[in-house]
Structures are given as structure tokens and as C-alpha cells.
Amino acid sequence: YQRIDASLQKLTESIAAYNPSVAAADELVAADEAVKQNLDDLVRHQQNHLRIQELRATSESLDETIKTTLRLLADARKDIASIPAVDTKAKERNQQFGIHELLTYAKFIAPTTVPPTYRKPLKDDAGRAPSKTPDPSSTAVAEGAGDTTAQISNGLSTPQAEDQNTTVTQNEGAVATTVGHKSMEEGELAWLNPKIDASAFQPWPNALVMSQGALADVQMMVERGEDPKLKLSKEEQAIEDLRRAREEEEAKARKEEEER
After folding, report:
1. Considering its fold, how many domains does the chain have in total?
2. Are residues 186 and 109 part of one domain?
3. Is the same domain home to 163 and 115?
4. Contacts of 232 (CB under 8 A, 6+ apart)
5. In whole angstroms, what is the distance from residue 147 CA to residue 71 CA?
6. In a domain, 109, yes or no
């Protein structure tokens, strides 16, 4: 500013003397340019100062975050160190079973063991249930036979009221039993049926079933010298066929383009 003041004073004096000085004017312009450059540097300096303050605040925040993370890691390490070690080898040893142990357990399995969910299909109850309506002719014959037996055994004509009561009671019990069976479902009758034919059930597959399974296919592949791991399923084989067909079409198209 002193340079500007001096240059301005010289120029003013030269104008007042009616002899304007070109050198004083040039010096004033140069001084003004210098002041402008210094102001730009000052603005840049202030901007840099603000940027430095922001970076310091960011650095302090990151330092605090790092310290917090290290504290959490130290606490986690202490918690992990306080957990008792687990012997994985002992667990693996406990999960292994010997052949003698398996055979000892298998000897308690009977060949005809029935699973708890097995139920024999029930036949038609209509063919086994007695008729609810007694036959008059058979009833009369039974009554006549009862009278004759009573006369022969006793030698006298005795009343048959007691026999009739017994016959009526048996008929009523039979009818009630039949009605009870008729009103029950097949699943409920299966629970009450103690005679379950379990001969068709086998707790393990026989040779015929095993020859029709996937293990038999694997054994046949091994005997043919094939690797079962490289054998694809139907879905995978279909995908592989599509991929090969697509590759063949692309190769054919490239060959046609090269010939053109």
C-alpha cells in the first residue's frame, strides 16, 4: 500500500503542475497489480488454512474410530480367550462306532419287527359281521332243541325262562358288538386288532430290492471300469447335450462365415 500511496502522490503532483508524468502512472499500475497478486495469495492461504483444519478434524475422528475398534478387538480377544477349548478329536472318537458294537445292537432287531406306523389293511366287515336279524327257523330249531335237551337231562318238563334270558342277552351283546365295530373307522379298528400279520414287513431290504436300487447301478459301473463320479444324472445329461448342440451350431456358423 505504501508503494501505491507514493505512486499516487507523484502522479497527483505532476497533474497539479500541469505536467502529467507517464512514469508515475506506470508505477501506479504496477503497484496495483502487485497488490492484487498479494490479495490472491492471501485468499489462497486462507483456503488452505481452512482445508488443513478440516483435515485435522477428520484425522482426529479417524483416530478415535481406530482406538474404539482396537478396544473392541481387545475385548473380543479376551472373550474368545476365556472360552474353554473343545477337543474335536474326542468328539470324532465318540461319533465312531465299531463293527462289534453295531452287531451287538443289530442282534436285538428281529426279522419280523413291525414299525409303529404299520397297519394291516382290514377286510370287509360286512362278510365277517353276523346278521343283526335272527333267522326265525333257526331260532325255532334252537328253542326246540333246548326244550328236548332240558326234558332228557332232567326227566321232567321244566320251564326254560332262564335259557331264553341267556339267549336274548347273547343276541343283544352280539348286536351291540356288531354295531360298535360298524361305527368305528378302519384306523381305529387297526389299533384294537391284536392279530397283525407282519410277515410281509422286513426291517432291511432283500437282495432283489438291492439289485434294483442305485447302489447296484454304481456297482455295475465300477465293474465296467467307469467312474461313478463322472456319471451325470438325467437333468445334467440334458443340460450337457444342449451345451454341446449349442457349441456345434456356433462352430458350424463360424465355419460358414470363414468360407464366405
Report:
1. 3
2. yes
3. yes
4. 240
5. 108
6. yes
What residue type is 240 in one-letter code? Answer: E
Same domain, 188 and 211: no
**Cβ atoms 229, 221 nearer than 8 A:** no
- pTM to 2 decimals? 0.27
Number of residues that make up the chain: 260
Amino acid of residue 142? A
Q: How confident is the model at residue 70 (pLDDT cuts 50, 70, 90)?
A: very high
In terms of Cα–Cα distance, which of 118, 117, 131, 119 is closest to 186?
119
Residue 198 resides in a domain? no
DSSP string, 156-177: S----HHHHHHHHHHHHHHHHH
- pLDDT at position 1: 66
Give 117-162 pLDDT, tens digit per residue. Answer: 666 665 554 445 444 444 444 444 444 444 444 444 444 444 444 4
Structural domain for 130, as ranges = 105-192
